[in-house]
């Protein structure tokens, strides 16, 4: 379904969260050069390595199909990072995209290790198709945790993704501990299921068993236009 994006509504939505971050001493900015993003994330000692999903040497991102966000403190030191990219799954679905390894590699046939595997058993993943905005690579510095930053980070990415792409779905693959610690709720996901991605990438030394969480395009549009943050369910 084609959605009409009202830039003023998105601007008002983003401004509120940008100001909320500024009140915590964080300056947010958006970038599009993923070579630069990888160089930034490599320097973060406590962050797990960025998945090949957001590394242009393994999964090129066409201009306009991806962006990243960074937050700096008053000393211009990195406080947070996260990234987003768009997949055209008009002839596929997110479960198939995961299991084919195309979420991680531009050309799995030549780039994936023969023993690389990804299974997705979440039933709803097969229904996630069309224009799909994938949000991932979340990292927040320890001294800024417990201050509501996940809500701000998620909201900014949703607003920017809606403005750029007006996607049919916004999807992520959060770690299971985020659910038990209540962080998943802070992100404002309306839907989640287990079995999102059981992953083993041999050369990347990645082993994961992640949930899948998502919003529909209608829910995203309602969130941005109403700007009621945690009350997205009222739009249903």
Main sheet summary: 8 strands, mixed
H/I helix tally: 8
Total number of distinct structural domains: 1
Number of strands: 8
Strand content: 25-35%
Sheet/helix structural class: alpha+beta
> Helix share of residues?
25-40%
pLDDT averaged over residues: 91
Return residue spans where pLDDT drops below 50 for at least 5 consecutive residues.
228-234
CATH class: Alpha Beta
CA(first)-CA(last) distance: 17 Å
The strand line-up of the biggest sheet is 1-2-3-5-6-8-7-4
What's the Cα radius of gyration?
A: 17 Å
The CATH topology corresponds to: Aminopeptidase
What report would you give on this structure?
The protein has 236 residues and is α+β, with helices and mostly antiparallel strands. It has one domain (7-235): Gcn5-related N-acetyltransferase (GNAT) (Aminopeptidase, 3-Layer(aba) Sandwich), CATH 3.40.630.30. It is built from 8 helices and 8 strands. The chain has helices at 7-23, 34-42, 94-99, 108-111, 149-165, 177-180, 183-186, 217-226; strands at residues 27-31, 66-72, 78-89, 117-119, 130-140, 169-172, 191-201, 206-216. The chain has an 8-stranded mixed beta sheet, with helices on both faces. 39% of the residues are buried.
Please give a quick description of this structure:
The protein has 236 residues and is α+β, with helices and mostly antiparallel strands. The protein has a single domain (7-235), classed as 3-Layer(aba) Sandwich (Aminopeptidase). The chain has helices spanning 7-23, 34-42, 94-99, 108-111, 149-165, 177-180, 183-186, 217-226, and strands at residues 27-31, 66-72, 78-89, 117-119, 130-140, 169-172, 191-201, 206-216.
């Amino acid at each position: 379904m084609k959605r009409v994006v009202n830039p003023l509504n998105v601007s008002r939505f983003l401004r509120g969260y940008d100001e909320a971050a500024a009140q915590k001493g964080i300056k947010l900015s958006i970038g599009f050069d993923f070579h630069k993003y990888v160089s930034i994330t490599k320097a973060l000692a406590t962050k797990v390595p960025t998945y090949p999903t957001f590394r242009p040497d393994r999964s090129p991102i066409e201009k306009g199909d991806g962006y990243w966000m960074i937050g700096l403190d008053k000393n211009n030191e990195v406080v947070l990072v996260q990234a987003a990219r768009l997949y055209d799954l008009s002839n596929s679905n997110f479960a198939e995209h995961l299991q084919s390894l195309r979420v991680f590699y531009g050309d799995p046939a030549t780039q994936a290790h023969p023993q690389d595997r990804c299974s997705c058993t979440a039933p709803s993943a097969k229904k996630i198709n069309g224009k799909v905005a994938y949000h991932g690579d979340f990292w927040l510095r320890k001294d800024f945790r417990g201050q509501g930053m996940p809500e701000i980070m998620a909201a900014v990415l949703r607003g920017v993704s809606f403005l750029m792409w007006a996607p049919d779905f916004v999807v992520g693959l959060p770690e299971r501990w985020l659910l038990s610690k209540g962080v998943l709720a802070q992100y404002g996901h309306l839907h989640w299921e287990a079995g999102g991605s059981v992953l083993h990438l041999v050369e990347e030394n990645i082993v994961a068993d992640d949930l899948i969480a998502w919003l529909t395009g209608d829910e995203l549009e309602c969130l941005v236009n109403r700007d009621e943050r945690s009350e997205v369910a009222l739009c249903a």
